[in-house]
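ENTRY TYPE: paired fold submission
RECORD: A
CONTENT: sequence, then structure tokens
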Amino acid sequence: MEEKDLLKGRIKDLSLRAREMQYCTHTPFLSQSEQALFFSIRKEEGGSLLKKECLGVKFFLYGGYEEADRKRIYFLPDYETEEEQKEKENEGEGFLLLEAKPRNIRFADTLSHRDFLGALMNLGFKRECFGDILTDSHTGYIFVEKGIADQVKEELSKVKHTDMDCSLLLPKELPLRPRFAEKNVFIASDRLDNVLAEVFSLSRRSAQEVIASESVFVNGVTEKNNSHVLKANDRVSVKGHGKFLYLDEARPTKRGRLVAKVKLYI
């Protein structure tokens, strides 16, 4: 069975239970590509673009903080609001924040997102059990499903060559946030190659070469089409250059040029 069919079946089951049993249901943590797949399924099912509903049930996405890449989809009963459920999640209802800190900072490796993820996968945990992984190059902060949080805390004793001490925090206690800067970019069109060239100060040809090398991901999916048109809230990641959120579609200026706003992660 294809990934789309599996996700569609899961969504129908979760939304049906939320509606008929009147309690909140949710998916595991989903990647950006899985989230994009959800929205394509919702569109096929005739979901209103103006309402945050899927199959007649209220929904929202959340991963511990608003800028999270990996998120869970929540389906709400009639009596509950998005704000109320987010508050519960921030207090640790469904997932917790694991702090993995070097036992001795003097002998600690410089650790990346990949290092922490590799250590978790080597322990045999599934990727869907974890949300975003943030690091200050030594300490890691990992959103983890509550049901396995204690186990992860006990088993994650080493990352790369660094011995770690782990503790559990509430999601609202996250001390790190991705840093970003909003900027306006003047473009010829919403084409992917045009936008990449302006955001990362590349020539048009260089932007096309980056796309051809399969180094560009839009909403978690490899994009190889130079003329792909970006839409509001698309997340774009480019190997070796960085990532940004395309905040809105290009609009004309008084001088007849096109301008779009992006949120560039730094």
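RECORD: B
CONTENT: sequence, then structure tokens
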Amino acid sequence: MKIIVCMKQVPATSQVEIDPETGAMKRLSADTRTNPYDLFALETALQIKEKTGGTVVVLTMGPGQAEAMMKDAYTMGADEAVILSDRKFAGADVLATSYTLAQGIHVLGSADLIICGRQTTDGDTAQVGPAIAEHLGIPHCAWVSEILRVDSDSIEVRQDLVSVSQISRMHFPCLITVDKDMCVPRLPSYLLKKNTEDRPVKILSFEDLPDKDLTRYGLIGSPTSVAKMFAPPASDSQVYFEGSADEKTKSLFDVLTSKKII
């Protein structure tokens, strides 16, 4: 079985620079870390590999500094790592990002199973995984909380969808996005770090992708844009309400209404 795990580097701090013209985040302006949800995706893939055999390939789109994240994936047990890196990919929204990743998956020879984290901590859209599946024309299940069974040609999962729990079965190839309660990501292995320190991380550029229509990538291929991005101001102030439960509820409602929160 071939499993592709889509991962992303996200800012490790709220102190990031924003391009005033495009509204896009300057990803080289701050320290980064692996998106926490993607660690659950990688662990899920490794556990499936241990049961069924096969390979785990990690894929990301971003600048060259993402190589550090990919090296970390090697220390957890990933077999291959690929970065989609090109200035033409910069400023991509959900549509352009998912299309670029789908094109990268085509270059890798597709996969039986594609696993993504539920969402990223910078964009929080939770849309890239399902959008990749739509671009590839394959079935997908989002918000997966448990892998129930993996056969030679299909996978059965449990989805926690806010108010309901649903069991779904899909034939390969397919895509899932996993939630943080899925598993506990393993710690990096020192032995794997020593054994994989010379293992290369493959870099793919725009020229390596099968579709070279520039209107599908980066800022040009993004129908949505960020009008404004900012970190909310920190506040240590607290408000206490006195009275009965009904009185407190009314007081809270009045405050939230006056601040136009509701």
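NOTES ON RECORD B: The CA atoms of residues 154 and 170 lie 5 Å apart. Helices lie at 36-52, 67-76, 94-107, 128-136, 190-196, 245-258.
STATUS: closed
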